[in-house]
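Researcher: Here's a chain I'd like modeled. Treat it as a single chain, no partners, no ligands.
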Amino acid sequence: MKRTSFRGDDDLVRLQEFTARQIKEHGRMGMMHPGDVPHRIYNALRRDDPRQLVHIWEDDDGAIAGWTLLDPRGGGFDAQLAAVARTSAPGLEREMNLWSEETLLALMKSGNSEAEAIETDAFEADTVRTTTLEKLGWVAQDTEVAMLSRRSLTNIEPPELPDGYTIRTVRGVAEAGPVSELHSAGFGSSWTPELYRRVMESPGYHPDRELLVEAPDGALAAFCVTWPDELNRTGLFEPVAVHPDHRRRHLGSSLMRAGMAAMAGWGMKWAEVMYEADNPGSGRLYRGEGFEPLYKLVFYRKPISL
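Model: Modeled as a single isolated chain. Structure tokens:
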């Protein structure tokens, strides 16, 4: 087994194809959506060089056996493993987790992090991964879980926007400024035009897959980014948010209906969304649009001393 660092566009395509094939052959449990691959690499790591933080394990034939993404700023990591590797290389899962943990801690220490814990996650039903984590000292957080929900792309209701509001796609990098402000307001995060332009210019992002709600005065009121998985015919919403000044006007539901209609037009049969279970607003929105729980994702935490 050989470990290599992420090399850019070609590896992104390989990782997306790997993820889609795993879902096709072994099911969704334990795997991220292929659209989540560029989202996590270029959005979550927007301030960093992914070539230093994404690593791929390959077998002797060059096929991907697994990969990890380290996020020293966020104090966590993601890990994905091929189902066949659990029998052909039974020690690989433990090796990947240990290597990711040790490398993450080194990066956090060199960056003068003051964190007191590190985080990762696992599908609750993935007993192999959850057992591995627990044996390595990770502790499941009962109050920190996310729900992966799904609905069929049939019987989609039309959007119901207030007078003067419209839905459109992003017009390209020229809108990096206002779109970054919308993302910051929607999530209370710290985007800048330069950072969002970097996302817009990254592989995998397409302006026509980011939908916006525009208010009567031209202000941007809500957004969602949509991702297709052509192999499994499943679309993903990641992320979705409404500006605080425009909430309680059903903009989120109208935007998702438009997004689902677009997904159906791409040939998708299903739509998925992941949300934190302790966010009552998100839960109500997605349940109201017909999304039903598919899997629970549990967050794991491990105390550290840097």
